[in-house]
DNA sequence: ATTTATCTTGACAAATTATGTCAAAATTAT
DNA sequence: ATAATTTTGACATAATTTGTCAAGATAAAT
């Protein structure tokens, strides 16, 4: 199962881009990009979006990949991780049905 | 669909505890507890755990409730929210299978 | 084998977000 | 109306995230 970082690295290398070249386009230090590709640091959603643009990756897919990874790590060490996701699904449904409620979060 | 805050408030009131009394036991300001119960502020996992103890709520359930709520809000405004959860489930499975790998996150 | 380019790592800095305190305003109960 | 409780918002402090930089490690080229 590939990590977001691995996907990015593979694509970057296929395109023949250097770390520092992609980093420059993203306007971040190459050190950070290196860490992102090695799953040492999380990237921001903005960066993911830019990366998809630059590397010509399917943006929607990459964002799904990125968010699901974030969530998975958030709860992976919970014994009830899967139940958490089940309940979260119900809650998402509920929230989506009541999108224009007045409450703040 | 009840929020974590609502669950806490209902139980607290059933037990006849005042905000400041429960807050004192949690060692936080009553203002924060008020906000937690009104979903204005997230509580920490530690607090959830203490609250379950004090109010005699099922700790496992309350933590599932709390984590799923956190996740739901995290992705509720994503159009692909449900796919994200599906993929997250796979990733959790994967992570749980390889618990003793060497990588850091 | 040595030099050069690329990538990785860790210590630190800046920025952002989370968590908490306090006091005054609003609400509810007496 | 008074007193008790809860709510709100401005602000302070703490924790986490995100970034920079420079030195070390690895790989590629000569």
Give a short synopsis of this structure.
Helix content of chain A is 69%, strand content 0%.
The CATH class designation of chain A is: Mainly Alpha
How much beta of chain A, percentage-wise?
under 5%
- Contiguous runs where pLDDT drops below 50 for at least 5 residues of chain A: 101-105
Order of helices and strands of chain A: HHHHHH
Total beta strand runs of chain A: 0
Question: Can you walk me through this structure?
Answer:
The structure is a homodimer of 105-residue chains. Chain A has helices at residues 4-14, 19-26, 30-37, 45-55, 59-75, 81-97. The radius of gyration of chain A is 17 Å and the shape is elongated. The longest helix of chain A has 17 residues, at 59-75. Residues 101-105 of chain A have low confidence and may be disordered. In chain A, helix 4 (45-55) runs antiparallel to helix 5 (59-75). Chain A has one domain: Orthogonal Bundle (434 Repressor (Amino-terminal Domain)). In chain A, 69% of the residues lie in helices and 0% in strands. Chain A is mainly α. At the A-B interface, helix 5 and helix 6 of A face helix 5 and helix 6 of B. The first copy, chain A, binds a DNA duplex (30 and 30 nucleotides) through helix 3.
Considering the chains and any ligands shown, give keywords for the structure.
homodimer; 105 residues; mainly alpha; 434 Repressor (Amino-terminal Domain); 6 helices; elongated; DNA-binding
Mind sketching the topology for me?
2 copies of one chain form a homodimer.
Chain A: H1 4-14, H2 19-26, H3 30-37, H4 45-55, H5 59-75, H6 81-97
The structure holds a DNA duplex (30 and 30 nucleotides).
């Amino acid at each position: 199962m590939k990590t977001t970082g691995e996907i990015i690295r593979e694509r970057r290398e296929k395109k023949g881009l250097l770390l520092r070249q992609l980093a420059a386009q993203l306007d971040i230090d190459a050190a950070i990009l290196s860490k992102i590709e090695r799953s040492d640091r999380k990237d921001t959603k903005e960066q993911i979006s830019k990366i998809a643009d630059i590397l010509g990756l399917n943006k929607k897919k990459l964002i799904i990949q990125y968010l699901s990874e974030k969530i998975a790590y958030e709860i992976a060490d919970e014994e009830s991780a899967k139940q958490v996701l089940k309940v979260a699904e119900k809650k998402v449904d509920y929230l989506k049905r009541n999108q224009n409620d007045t409450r703040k979060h």
